[in-house]
Amino acid sequence: MELKPLNLVPSTKPPPGLNLFPTLNPPEKTLTFHKFLVLLLTFIAYAAFHASRKPPSIVKSVLGPEVKDLNGTGWAPFEGPSGPHRLGELDLAFLLAYSIGMYFAGHIGDNIDLRVFLTVGMLGSGVLVIVFGLGYFLDVHWLGFFLIVQILCGLFQSIGWPCVVAVMGNWFGKAKRGLIMGVWNSNTSVGNIIGSLVASSVLGFGWGWSFLLPGIFILVVAVLVYMFLVVKPDHIGLELDSKEIEMNVEGVALVGPDTGEAEEEEGVVGPETEEGAGAIGFLQAWRLPGVAPFAFCLFFSKLVAYTFLYWLPFYLRHTVVAGVQLSHKSAGILSTIFDIGGVVGGVLAGVTSDIIEARGVISIIFLLLSIPVLLFYRLYGSVSMFTNISLMLISGALVNGPYSLITTAVSADLGTQSLIKGNSRALATVSAIIDGTGSVGAALGPLLAGYISTRGWNSVFVMLILSIFIASLFLIPIVKNEIKEKLNEGKWLWISVIKR
Fold this sequence. Notes:
Layout: H1 16-20, H2 31-53, H3 55-63, H4 83-109, H5 114-137, H6 143-157, H7 160-171, H8 177-184, H9 187-201, H10 209-228, H11 282-286, H12 291-317, E1 320-321, E2 324-325, H13 328-334, H14 336-356, H15 359-380, H16 385-415, H17 424-452, H18 457-499
Antiparallel strand pairs: 1-2
Main location: membrane
GO molecular function: transmembrane transporter activity
Protein name: Major facilitator superfamily (MFS) profile domain-containing protein
């Protein structure tokens, strides 16, 4: 299926907040100031999206408590032995809608005002999160209600990522991309932390409150985004340096730096016209260099990351740490350690990849190191609180580091391929394949965890470790190419030194 371009013209007017506060406009405020403002607004915006996704994982242990020797009845239809299955189905409904909506959101966002579109996504998400929480106050016990709300919420949530990445691409270029995107991509972990703390702090008043507050939070941030987010520098009369590059709405660079002549691959992309190449087919996009390895690696990486996102508080609630059974609130707060590790891991992976200029190598190192750490966490995480926190922190860094880096590395890699350079329609198809494949893994992981956890948590960790191992296997071709390039660079360097 091919989506036809929409006959819509994005607005080039500045946001209304800059009209209310004229001192925020140039020349009173410089390009650097507005770059920081865009960085801050997009960071908070996507953090708010993730904060509003966190409540379902926090309330899992309340909706379907399976802790021995505790008098918890749960919330129909999530109580009883089949409760984890129903909770997993809720996660699947949200994430499948999210993955399907991602492609359509990117296509629509390419043709309309990103600020307005992002605001719509945030407002819809906030309202639906609140509606889910109203299920508690209205005493709703119909599974269909919760499924419908999650599906609609997933569709609105899918608007967020394409929009914020596109805006970032309009303002920031390739220089120090690993560092900048590593820091900026921590918005997911920061959002998870905020959502966990807020939802856990009010869980004692009733699980509905855990949804109301994050829902209100994203609505407030939506207002700030609508009032002050500038989509492009030229909307307020500013210009970027010539070295800066632009990304399309899926977050892929439209114009990359010259990387030399690449080997031609017949039959991959058709001939270009003066207006750019036409859209490529689904199978043709899969054949582009790097697409299949990154897509399948992201599938398994997201599977692991989102399993922790949706099930870690539930796991902690059902695990005895140092002989103590954690409360619902304590389990939710403690789970933020994993996200703190994710912040550290994302920045560390970005910085190190900038230094050695081999993102695939850094990703596979993180992935392989996470295997023994997850094993140790399962075996020794219950020994003491210190051991649990330490291993959870390291696990978060190693699991989320490559997940964050792979997302940005894919953008950089595709943007510098001569086969599709400048072909925005080809880039849209390719990034939809990669993001869509990764999101399917994100949907599958929590669902499998819901079913497998009833057989024991050892089985869940076996699934996670196996997924990480498979993800690393798909990176081997990319790592080989990076190592080969480094060796060739060293070879030519030595030849140059000898000639001198």
